[in-house]
Specification:
Pfam families: EGF_CA. The protein is mostly beta strands and 197 residues long. The protein contains 3 helices and 18 strands.
């Protein structure tokens, strides 16, 4: 089976037919499925969508049980956690619904970890890190676009000279470079390439 556009988070099952891995949707399985919007809802109280998955958390005064349900807890109610809590050996600990969040100094609210500035994020050389609340994603650098090439998605150089997105002077020629372009005044003209006289 050949899928011309590829299956980003899935398998090619037939001519241009993708079978998506759990947590993904779309014709090429490139979209994250928002499990929190499904009916019936996967979480008893609150739900946080994550890339390819989701996390359940409980309202204040409840704690998350191993099966994903929320059980009432008097001790949790006294701590007043932002995203529910757990009790381990009589100790109450507030929880954060994502690995990209950490407990704040008050021990009750969750604050975002900026994976981009902390160096926890791993993006390839032609991608830049974009921080989100509780996570991050890798976006193509300016001058590159996401394309499906030889079996996988990659950031490919945009040829500004072909797409006509350059700002070269009418009397200059456009020269494509990796991630950018250059303008050179034609013979008989002088200037920066953006202005030629």
């Amino acid at each position: 089976a050949i899928c011309g556009h590829g299956c980003k988070y899935g398998e090619c099952m037939g001519p241009n037919k993708c079978k998506c891995f759990p947590g993904f949707t779309g014709k090429t399985c490139n979209q994250d499925l928002n499990e929190c919007g499904l009916k019936p809802r996967p979480c008893e109280h609150r739900c946080m969508n994550t890339h390819g998955s989701y996390k359940c958390y409980c309202l204040n005064g409840y704690m998350l049980m191993p099966d994903g349900t929320c059980a009432s807890s008097r001790t949790c109610a006294m701590v007043n956690c932002q995203y529910g809590c757990e009790e381990v050996k009589g100790q109450v600990r507030c929880l954060c619904p994502s690995g990209g969040l950490q407990l704040g100094p008050d021990g009750r609210t969750c604050i975002d970890i900026d994976e981009c500035s902390s160096g926890k994020a791993v993006c390839s050389y032609n991608r830049r890190c974009i921080n989100t609340f509780g996570s991050y994603y890798c976006k193509c650098q300016p001058g590159y676009e996401l394309k499906y090439v030889s079996g996988h998605y990659d950031c490919v150089d945009v040829n500004e000279c072909v797409t006509n997105t350059h700002r070269c002077n009418l009397h200059a020629e456009c020269l494509n470079t990796e991630g950018s372009f250059k303008c050179k005044c034609k013979q008989g003209y002088r200037g920066s390439g953006f202005s030629c006289a």
